[in-house]
């Protein structure tokens, strides 16, 4: 009797074979369709534990999917699809219990009637589990820090099949590791977050033409340095992509305050001659989140990302210089500081707390392009990355030991490896950003 057949008999209606809708949904991630031997959809932490124990005993590889945006498609083995663990429960004191399979758009919608929110990523359909384990740089990062900074408790299944409750007093080292260390240590089956007020928000966008992106970057840097924690924004510089997506810098902004105050804070940007459109006003937190693309785009993204401790003029010059390339180039600068920077570097596994901004550059290499195009896509990227001091895992589509050493500083990585040796010595869990024991 095969492992899949045996597990199906023990867990009826949970194990799904190829050809079923549940299999197709669980095997599909943002980057493509996987080919696991089976997909299991547990409905409780105890069921997750049973699946893990069974797979480990049979020597079957495990892939855990909670959203699937950052995962590689599984080739063989067993996928544990956490989409049925999606409950959102508001508790006393603004605490909210959320399953890893919930999507952030659903979380925002559920909390909005209470005037509350949990800082998360920018996209509605990203899963709670994957984003949280990787850090979670979201809309309210300057007000409330990372998503991991407001985690108060994690229900967790280890490689031994034990169900643990992790918090500051219970299994504190493992609690530290899962807040930024990814899915290397087991399966998170429920998170408890400290939600915060998100009423009274104003925001929107300011669009610029392509005439002087360097001036926009410099003005944005100065605005964010002088702005309060309540001011959160991302600056994108977009290449020509479609008629409804004009090229040039785009400011996405939100403030917990008044529209008058927002316009005053943004005046150095609003007065630039390259401004083409201004849309600012009251906004609800769920409306700040965007719909993600339906699937992987018809091009490869080649570039890099990193935390920038000092957004100097030299750094801005290097970032702007990357736009001068034959391939379409996209820049992203996410304002940090505030609550993000008031967290100690060793408080979570995301250690780059001196980052003034998160910077990313991506060249769009069309499908079917030859090796010369991919080689040229790296031109100028290294010069820009010289101003960064470490990658953000959730924005890093490259994998391997060398990439892991760029995500985690040496002391952080050594601590993560020690915890891995303790809780998963046989290396059962091997996510895309794999930390070996």
Describe this structure in words.
A 7-stranded antiparallel beta sheet has the order 17-14-16-15-19-20-18. The radius of gyration is 22 Å and the shape is globular. By secondary structure, the chain is an alpha+beta fold. It starts with a helix and ends in a 14-residue tail after the last helix. The chain is built from 16 helices and 20 strands. Helices cover 29% and strands 24% of the residues. Helix 8 packs antiparallel against helix 12.
Structure in a nutshell:
Helix content is 29%, strand content 24%.
Radius of gyration: 22 Å
Strand order of the largest sheet: 17-14-16-15-19-20-18
Overall pLDDT: 93
Number of separate strands: 20
N- and C-termini, Cα separation: 33 Å
**Structural class of the helices, strands and pairings?**
alpha+beta
How much helix is in the residues?
25-40%
**Main pleated-sheet profile:** 7 strands, antiparallel
Give the overall shape. globular
The percent range for strand residues is 15-25%
Number of helical stretches of at least 4 residues: 16
Instruction: Catalogue the unreliable spans.
Output: none
Cofactor: FAD
Protein name: FAD-binding oxidoreductase
Organism: Agromyces tropicus
Family: Belongs to the oxygen-dependent FAD-linked oxidoreductase family.
